Amino acid sequence: ENNEINGNWVGISFDYQDNSRISNNNITGNSLYGVLSRNTLNAQDNWWGDPTGPYNVTFNPGGLGNEVSNEVDFEPWLSEAVIFDEVGIQRPVIIIPGILGSAQKNGEWIIDPILHTYDNLIDTLEANGYVEDVTLFTFPYNWYQSNVLTAFELKNKINDVQDICDCARVDLIAHSMGGLVARQYIQSNYYENDVKQLIFLGTPHEGSPKAYLTWEGGKISSDANGSLVNFIFSREAKKLGYNDVFDYIRNSPISSVKELLPIYPYLIDKATGTYKPFPSGHPINDFLLNLQASLQNLYNSNVVLTNITGLVNPTSTINDFRVVNSSDLFLWQHGYPEGFFENIGDRGLIFGPGDGTVPEESSTTIQSAQFELAYSHNQIPAKGAGLIFKVLTGVTPTQVFDEFTGFGFELLIFKMLSPADMQVIGPDGKKIGKNFNNNEEFDEIPNAFYSGFETDDEYITIFNPLEGEYKAITQGTNNGGSYTIATGLISDESIIENEFTAQTTPGQIQNISITLSAGEIEVAPEDFIAPHILINSPQLKDYLRSETLPIDVVFSDKESGVFSTSLNLDNISAGNNSSIDLFFQPLGNHIFTAEAVDFLNNTAHQEVEFRVIASPDSTILDVERAYSLGWITKKAVKEDLIRKLKNAIRLEKRIDFLEEQFLDKPKIVKRIERIENRIDKVLARAIIRDLENQRNRNINDQAYFLLLEDINWLINN
């Protein structure tokens, strides 16, 4: 396109049989044919030298322009000559990122502030004449949702840009899944013919097998990008109440993951060594299948296509999976990659050519100008910046920024799981996060990103962080409660994770230390001292069953404060500054425990062991209490029991007096004690017989067993 073709015998002679297209040309003044083709050729939207169109004896005999052969599809044609643009910036360009290429800042989507994938591309375009928000725009979007929804949002974005530039068309640079968004728009029935150029960067036109791991197993690749996605997904799943990442992806749902599944056979059945049937043996990606079915709409759109792909090496990219049947009811319904979790052999992963994410067979299928770069998926926007500018403008850039490597970096992330806001201070004293003094933000750490505190999704990322001690300062929000700071150090080699959970109240400030050293993360609160517990009552002693036991415990914490306390008697909850009626407690040993947790989850535990016992006097009181509760129904029965107990007490006192008279004669004392024991047991057994006689007549089971326990205690103690 954009050619002046005139003064020839035949302007264009075409012999190929493919989906080629010529458009936006001035084809005039050619002696025999403007276009001569032996096969069908799309030559719509050209100027043929006259508003009546090209001459064709069969289809346009009234045309006064250059003649075309019957195989040429020339309608519609242009009604006036093309005024060719000068070389250089002619239209605004919109950059469409891929999955993970957008993040929210206080609820508004912005382009990749975390990994900075597009910084070099933007810097190169600006250095060579593009102006932000005048001729250079970005289209960050919610990459969780379906690309169908995002494509409609792209239509609105283009309309907004057209309002600014007062122009008919824009150019698009679309990376990764962003290319599918652009295709969905251009191939849709609501396309407004407002795109001039579309440059694909590593677009998975037929899907990416990596998506199978995520969609079927809830697993994400272990490279830095995958580790970041897994960190985010796992915390969001926990926060939103999903069982795990798989449950979150499937039932949230995160539609974009499914829309990246390949639309060709890629699952090899281990049992047969052949590909499972497609589509029946594979998960179905209706989005890409529909896009493939309407591909001709893209070729007929009059959009100039350029496809830039990456090729790291012949074995850099997952191309297929060797699968076996899975016994899991939900996971791997179409096959489990052999040895994937067991780390056996190749783990069922079959590698081939590609950019590390998108196989070559998926990225190169579009018929367009093709450029291949020896870089990985996320390097393409930076390493291809100069080429992209030249494709857009036809001019070699004077300055190119392409230092982004896409690998060999570390990313430190702090994710807040509410209800709290946060601020992070680096080892060098620089800050990022909420300014608690004025409700604004600190932004002092280079290559760091703070999502803001105006939404419930709050996190901080630091690209290539310094080693040393970071201080996370939190402030309680809403009604307070439990919050968690999840931290992760992500690289291509590994991800190191740690979490800290604490309690907060509205406005409360807390300090947490996060130390980054030698690839490890240590998280610890500045307050590590547990609360103090003082148990005034109960004490280590004997209590009579007839007593009421006061509960008196003092809790204190001089650092972060006491968040919660609990009191238990024999594992049954008790209230502080209350009392326990020991009449209803069994005789014997009891354990009273007190626990306290401060706001930074330091825990203290204290316990006291005591006994509940019976005496003759307390047993009389227990008889009275049983009668008052209606457990003993006849007053005469109650008075008879008390009389016998009092007789036993009087006898006991006489024996005690007798013993005192013979303290200097131990043999006599021992004989008296033996006689006393026999008398005690006789009297006690007589009372027990009375209890048994009255049971279920004038004494219910509650009174019977309680008083029986008292008498047996007196016999045995």
From TrEMBL:
One of its GO terms (molecular function) is O-acyltransferase activity. The lineage of its organism: Bacteria, Candidatus Doudnaibacteriota. One of its GO terms (biological process) is lipid metabolic process. It comes from Candidatus Doudnabacteria bacterium RIFCSPLOWO2_01_FULL_44_21. It holds the Pfam family LCAT. This is Right handed beta helix domain-containing protein. Gene3D superfamilies: alpha/beta hydrolase (3.40.50.1820). It comes from the Bacteria. InterPro entries: AB_hydrolase_fold (IPR029058), LACT/PDAT_acylTrfase (IPR003386).
